[in-house]
Amino acid sequence: MTSNPAALAASREMQIDGRPLRVFDGHLANVGDYVQGLARAAFTRTEIARPETAGYKHWATEIKLDALLQQPIFEQTRRAVLGFTTPAFGYKPYRAYTNVASFGDMLFTHTDCLPEQHDLTALWYLCEEWDLEWGGETLFFDAQDEVACAIAPKPGRLVIFDGAIKHVGRPPNRICYMPRYTFAIKFERVPVGGGQ
């Protein structure tokens, strides 16, 4: 981890097959504002996990990068990403979108980048409350397809991980009537001086 004093401190951190995963809690005070905005957003059933599961689309809404950069949530994300930078490499965002899942949806395991890319995915859980019995965890797998880590949705929780780690968001359980919103910001690794 870098010693950059502007970087957010992680609540938990680990490595899966040598690739980093960090959890950040307590850094998004206005999570309710985002939840209310998402309740009015236009979601389309267009997102797929991987090409062979293209017949099973799930709900998403895209956020334009210029709008993302104006949001307070991006500043918190940027500060968390600073902890992953090195003297040689930084990160810049290239895509942002929100997924929504409800009981009965089918979500599939996938990776977000090729192993040699070392891109990062920043995943925010946007909910005002979440009960342990509601499920909805994000599962992360090791190279043997064993569950290496499970991250529970919590209001305003952020998890940042190497996009080559196989993962899946599980839909909520039957007793959950809340949508499971996850706001993803994808970052590509760039040489220092290449824009961050």
TrEMBL record:
A Pfam family annotated for this UniProt entry: 2OG-FeII_Oxy_3
The protein's required cofactors: L-ascorbate
Span of domain Prolyl 4-hydroxylase alpha subunit: 19-188
InterPro entries: Pro_4_hyd_alph, Pro_4_hyd_alph_FE2OG_OXY
Key words of the record: Dioxygenase, Oxidoreductase
Organism domain of life: Bacteria
PANTHER family assigned to the protein according to its UniProt record, in alphabetical order: FE2OG DIOXYGENASE DOMAIN-CONTAINING PROTEIN (PTHR35169), PROLYL 4-HYDROXYLASE ALPHA SUBUNIT FE(2+) 2OG DIOXYGENASE DOMAIN-CONTAINING PROTEIN (PTHR35169:SF1)
Protein name, per record: 2OG-Fe(II) oxygenase
Source organism of the structure: Lysobacter koreensis
Lineage, uppermost ranks: Bacteria, Pseudomonadati, Pseudomonadota, Gammaproteobacteria, Lysobacterales
